[in-house]
Amino acid sequence: MPFRFVDRLKYMIERQFVKGALFQLMVVALVIGLISLVGGLLVLPTAGTFADLGDAIWWAFLRLTDPGYLGDDEGSWRRFVSTLLTVSGYVVFMGTLVAILTRSLFALMTDLERGLTPVTMRHHVVVLGWTSRTLPLVRELMAASGRVRRFLERHDVRRMRLVILSESVSAAQSLELRNDRQIGRRSRHIVLRSGSALQPEALHRVAALQAAAIIVPRTYHGPDSRIGADVETVKALMSMASQAGATGRSLPYVVAELEDNRRQPVAERAYPGPLEVIAGDAVMARMMVQTLLHPGLSSVLNELLTDRGQHDLFIRSGENLAGTPFGDLLGRWSTARALGVLRPQGEGWLPLLCPSPEERIQRNDRLVMLARDYDDTAEMRDVARTAADLAAGSDSARVVPEVTRHRVLVLGWNRRLACLLSEMGQYPSHQFTVDVASVLDERERDEELARYGGCPESVTLNQRFADVVVPVDLQGLHPEHYDSVLMLSSDRLASGEEADARTMMAYLQLEEILGNGPDRPQVVMELSDPDNESLLLTDHSETLVSPMIVSHILAQVALRRELRVVLDELFTAGGAEIMLRGVDVLDLPDAPTFATVCDCFQGRGEIALGILWADARRGLTMNPPASMVLTLAPGDRVVVLAHPG
């Protein structure tokens, strides 16, 4: 079928219009010229003052562009043509021209809002990805803390400048940053840019090679995606390494989160620059297992590893303390506690947490401190212990052996369960029997576990098919017969809000089954959305919000690199651990001071960090003043740093 002339004309006009505003204006100018030519030809034969065709065309152009000339015309034909030209002018000249300019300006503003312009910053912090970890990360980085101030001083910048790379930038993201109570007005120092970490041009857009630090949080694509989160992370690392090699620039410091800690050698091979890897799933698995071993520990973890806590871990030079036994440092700070030292080892650091009191500080060692702020670690004081303090420390009782068998009911399924079982297998003195209840097909569960290496031989695993939000199924599991109930947030739903809604529904039904009996099991609940934690106002469960904890670790390691080895040592089997000791294991005087409690535990080779009160209204008192008088009651427990066994 042959092409019609009209189709050819329409196609030609379309091809010009899609080329942009300049070509659109050229087409409009051509149409205006044609209308002026036709109008001039129509009025040229009439008697008048037109010397030639050019004068007639100019007359038509003036009527086309300015309706004020309409009243100057005489004669019916000339007025008729003038009216047609004026109406055409409204449609073509004014309407089309304004539409093209408005649309062009709107498109320009839209492109600018999409964040496609490369930033021209140096020594800023880049976050690659907008995920559930982004807001907690931003809160940590934009906080006016001493650690942030020292980070800025090291890079000689006045304020923290943050660039976030998101798949698509929208006004909703900017509004979310501005409306956050902890970010608020500081959001004006945050720049959003569109793009994927898989795209080299997007990395150039955020000036990745000029950054002081780059944080790569994991992006979860769903259980059916063929692009794993670690694949995207490693590809981003390779792109940055390639760009640095092509431009001759040095590689920036990167903190990357991986889903599978077995891929850490792959990430290090892909990125030869300064790199710290945080295995998010392994970190959460370690904390869940330690919470199962030490009920109540979640309060301490939330205090130390979320932005809602008031205490942090700090690293301080120990040069001026060289030769001092570590035991002499305990109690030397009124508002801080020494936890151990970092000793140089090759290109890294060897963490020595809760070392022997006779361990002497070396010149290049760094102290690991617990405090509210870095400034609290500076002031030292002379310690004058009383005879009662020393006596209490020497007569302290031995540690009561802990139960080594644990029967755990896991409600739900997510990718962290394989890490959880693997972590349980790292504690040879504890034997776990784990029953997993989920609606996921048992064969699919076994396949996921097999990909991670299977279940350790020291852990007994039983698979149960049950829908935990169905009361009959949940009651049929008999949760009251277990030592602990662990509720996992599903990663197979569309969002963290949906996963948390399901988890909280199951929790409320679990509470109906357990009641308020004295022998109720420990309940540990994992949430995916930080905003949902406040919805469950109860002292019957322990809550861990995964994005908040992992975000805190990513941010703190980005600001202080040495913290990564400290956290690995603190939350890995075999190293020093944070534990809870009952006050009944100590021979304490009435109304002791916290200094007395510290002396008691120092005699046992442990470091006291705070008090977890049995009264839920008092909660946790971390790092109290040494002179604080404690009114201890049965059920109160002391938070200590100690070696297991």
UniProtKB/TrEMBL annotation:
Acyltransferase keyword on record: no
Membrane topology of the entry: Multi-pass membrane protein
Protein origin, superkingdom: Bacteria
Gene Ontology BP term (one): monoatomic ion transport
Transmembrane as UniProt keyword: yes
Subcellular location: Endomembrane system
GO terms for cellular component: endomembrane system
UniProt domain CASTOR/POLLUX/SYM8 ion channel conserved: residue ranges: 282-380
Principal localisation: membrane
Annotated keywords: Ion transport, Membrane, Transmembrane, Transmembrane helix, Transport
Transmembrane segments: 21-44, 80-101
The protein, known as: Trk K+ transport system NAD-binding subunit
